[in-house]
Design brief:
binds 2'-deoxycytidine-5'-monophosphate; 19% strand; alpha/beta; single chain; five-stranded parallel beta sheet; 52% helix; Rossmann fold; three-stranded antiparallel beta sheet; 8 strands
């Protein structure tokens, strides 16, 4: 299989995939795909009562993704909807919708279209196993449930959202279970993925470890 200039970062909720992907994109000047945000957008537009064809069109043509330092702004009709789509409610609905074949199928080519000449870092659940099987480098990033809940708690708090730790842990555990046990594209590491357990690592250490692998594969 001919390998393409893509680095995939898969793993469970709040394992640090997003921060790692943004660091990689900034450091190496490559494009970024936060595939979870596409599932969240699907949920967002479903709540607004659009049908699947309209949703596919909207995500392809009417949404602008802008990487700004360590955040990706998501704009719809010039309105910044980043905070809305990153709520826990939308996450739960996205997880539910992501079990449907028609939803996964409709997002497949949109995800592949993020790959351009300059290279791509793509994070999600099935980037290395399904969407970019031909990626040059695959990372599977994981961490203990306690550590992930702590990180998500701080993230939501920083965004001014109300959070309750026991509820958050229960939500993450439930989402993990759903993501791992679904029939379509369940969450698991690709055979050729490098597994990094970040429970006792700082974000900087995870980045340096991935950077080494990137430099080995890409140069
Ligand atoms: O990464 P995230 O929390 O933003 O993802 C939200 C939901 O979308 C997640 O619970 C499962 C689904 N998802 C998926 O099925 N496949 C992906 N590649 C990314 C996300």
């Amino acid at each position: 299989m001919k390998k393409i200039n893509v680095i995939t970062i898969d793993g469970p909720s709040a394992s640090g995939k997003g921060s790692l992907a943004k660091n990689i994109a900034n450091q190496f000047g490559i494009d970024i795909l936060d595939s979870g945000s596409l599932y969240r957008l699907y949920a967002y537009f479903t709540e607004l009562k659009f049908d699947s064809v309209e949703i596919q069109n909207k995500i392809s043509n009417e949404i602008k993704f802008e990487l700004k330092d360590m955040s990706i702004d998501i704009k719809y009709k010039s309105k910044n909807i980043s905070n809305e789509i990153r709520s826990e409610d939308i996450a739960k609905f996205a997880s539910k919708l992501s079990t449907r074949s028609e939803v996964r199928q409709s997002l497949y080519s949109i995800q592949r279209n993020f790959y351009m000449q300059k290279g791509l870092v793509a994070d999600g659940r099935d980037m290395g196993t399904v969407v970019f099987k031909d990626a040059k480098l695959k990372i599977f990033l994981t961490a203990s449930i306690e550590e992930r809940a702590k990180r998500r708690y701080l993230e939501l708090q920083n965004r001014g959202q109300e959070v309750n730790m026991p509820d958050l842990m229960a939500d993450i555990e439930q989402r993990d279970f759903k993501d791992r046990s679904r029939d379509l594209s369940p969450l698991f590491p690709a055979d050729d993925a490098h597994i990094i357990d970040s429970s006792n690592m700082s974000a900087e250490e995870v980045f340096l470890c991935t950077k080494k692998l990137y430099e080995k594969e890409f140069y």
